[in-house]
Amino acid sequence: MSTLIKRSAQGWEISHTDDRPNWKTPQDWQQGEPLLLQVDAEIDARFLQASTIAIDFPAFTDGRGLSLAVLLRQRIKYTGELHAIGAIHEDVLHYMVRCGFDVLELPQERCAETALRLLAPYTHHYQESVEQA
Amino acid sequence: MYQYDNFDREFVAERVAHYRDQTQRYLAGQLSEAEFLQLRLRNGLYIQRLAPMLRVAVPYGTLSATQLRMLAQISRRYDRGYGHLSTRQNMQFNWPEIADVPDILHDLASVEMHAIQTSGSCIRNVTTDEFSGAAADELVDPRPYCEIMRQWSTNHPEFDWLPRKFKIAVTGAANDRAAIAVHDIGIRAYKNADDAVVFDIFVGGGLGRTPVLGTAIYSGLPVKHLLTYLESIMRVYNRYGRRDNKYKARIKILVRAMGAEAFKARVEQDWVDIKGGPSTLSDAQVADMVAAFAPPARVTSAAASIDLDALRLEHPTFSHWLHHNVGPHQQANLTVVTLSTKMTGVPPGDVSDEQMDAVAQWAEDHSGGEIRISHEQNFVLPHVPRNALFELWEKARRLDLATANAGLLTNMICCPGGDYCSLANAKSIPVAEAIQRRFDDYDYVHDLGDLDLNISGCMNACGHHHVGNIGILGVDKKGQEFYQISLGGHSGHSGHAASLGQIVGPSFARAEVCDVLAIILNTFVDFRLEGESFLSCFNRIGIAPFKERVYVDAD
Q1: Across the interface, do A95 and B157 touch by the CB < 8 Å criterion?
Q2: A and B: number of Cβ contacts within 8 A
Q3: Which of A6, B176, B365, B431 falls between 20 and 30 A from B265, CA-CA?
């Protein structure tokens, strides 16, 4: 069972599900399917054809997935769902949200309530961002 | 100087609350050591050899009197009544309790200060010339651009989890006192033929295990493009910098591996898409920030006009101090004063609460309320009227802050070393003290002239030994402390280009260091031409004569 924190019109919502998308890597992915990217992936305009995209974080300290997310949002203007999966930690979610992720898949040992509380610890920001408000 | 607006105040207050929450979860066992480590580092807290160490950010080395008084108060309330001026212009406290840190951060926030991103793999405090906004040789005041970068880099959503720490330094003067050649990004600000401020951007400089001088990748960058261009550099580094080996994770290794041309091409390829985009600086934004750094209202002194020449004759030590520690200001009636912390017997950069309070008072009395911290670990009062100099010197002398050694051998840069730091291979403070005791004759040290001696207790090079004219590096040989000496390094000030020192040969036991230094200095004295500095002499004669004499008995 994984815990999803997902942005909706009403704000962020927690759900628990076993029903995960059938993620495909870029090698065997086809248009219309969910696409799973590693943090060192290069972006490709074909990704706009994905039904949904996930970026897999190998460690919560690995910022490559943040830059990759920004590139998807800013460069190829991907507007679909963007999932953060892998080594996700309550204390880095606020960065992820501002880099354009809108579905956060928490590992089992993490605390959903803490995560929800720490999604936006700051009212204002010093930078522009690609947050999907 | 820059004053917080409501936005800054609210942000820093939220950061304190955020960190308090993280600390409480750690103390309650909800965060592991490894998880909390990453969070506390980004709030300035290290766990050192003996106790935690809190590094407080002093943005581009600028402090108000009120802020310095708060640092004094924090040192009394939470520490042992002293602080340490770091080589990156910050203030470190060596003995805080982990549980007290949120309260310390709260106290700092009350005077518009914080400890955000003073450690960890993120963009660190931007450093600059300690004489900025005052120095006579200044082309552009770098502080407005430093503050723009401070704000941009604070809690950056994309760049807070880099492969490794990231240091930016800016100079806007003819003499580079910010050592921009040895930073991840070095920025030189000047005015172009149209009188517009522009920047030359250098990347990939650094000290540590693999010392490298930065390479220029952009000349004449207009101000409005500063942040988008930096964003592209950071993105290329964040994506392609090595994460498998922390010793190969700095941007210098990436630039070297890719080649500077290929790195620059990658940056420009990224930049094409964001250049002129939302992060472009408007003229109004820049003008507002420049206005925030207007010079203090006319600084005057109540003292009657004084006859400096007569006082110099009467007080030779005052005369020495004027010669070395007082420099020219942009305004003829003002001067820039260095208050040296390098008194023999005191660890370089350590300052007591009493000294901090006093310097704050002198800043209010004689320097428009402003203080700077230099990368050479001294205090600077940037706007002192000429006729206040004698009064200031007398006050500073009583508190051991008037040693006349700015620019000289005994004004050593020195990291905390093995006495405090858990990374160190060897102690550095006792070496500094031994050198100061051995070379305590003012006339001799003065006769040697300009000489940068820098000491680091390990390869991480916090004491900048690679760019000391004489550099001393602590190394570990089978559990014994040894010291490697290098010659000819330079950080890029005083008209010389930056250079990295050459190792003179096999290392020495601690007890030998002063004798070896004496041989090196005597060699210089024997070989120098009239008026020649140590560095100029070294550049002319090379390392061979030094080597020959240092190891004469070795065979």
Answers
A1: yes
A2: 85
A3: B176
Query: Domain range holding A92?
Result: 2-117
Token readout for B240 is 């392609």
CATH homologous superfamily of B413-550 equals: Sulfite Reductase Hemoprotein, domain 1 (3.30.413.10)
Residue spans per domain, chain B: 7-109, 134-290, 308-398, 413-550
Whether residues A66 and B25 touch (CB distance < 8 A) is answered with: no
In this structure, which topology does domain B7-109 adopt according to CATH? Answer: Sulfite Reductase Hemoprotein; domain 2 (3.90.480)
Q: Residue B17 has what pLDDT? A: 97
Q: Cα distance from A47 to chain B (closest Cα, Å)?
A: 18
Quick check: B274 contacting A, CB < 8 Å? yes
**B20 close to A (CB below 8 A):** no
Q: How far apart are CA B253 and CA A14, in angstroms?
A: 42
Is-contact B373 B363, C-beta < 8 A? Answer: no
Amino acid at B535: L
B39/A91 CB distance under 8 A: yes
Q: Would you state the pLDDT for residue B301?
A: 60
Nearest C-alpha in B relative to A76: B273
Q: What's the burial of B530, exposed, middle or buried (CB within 10 Å: 0-12/13-18/19+)?
A: exposed
Q: Which two tokens stand for residue B34?
A: 């490894």
Q: Which residues contact B530 (CB under 8 A, 6 or more apart)?
A: none
Look up the ipTM and state it.
0.97
Write out the CATH class of domain B308-398: alpha beta
Q: Do A127 and B157 touch (CB under 8 A)?
A: yes
Q: What is residue A49's predicted lDDT score, i.e. its pLDDT? A: 97
CATH value of B134-290 in 1.20.1250.20, 3.30.420.40, 3.30.160.250, 3.30.413.10 = 3.30.413.10
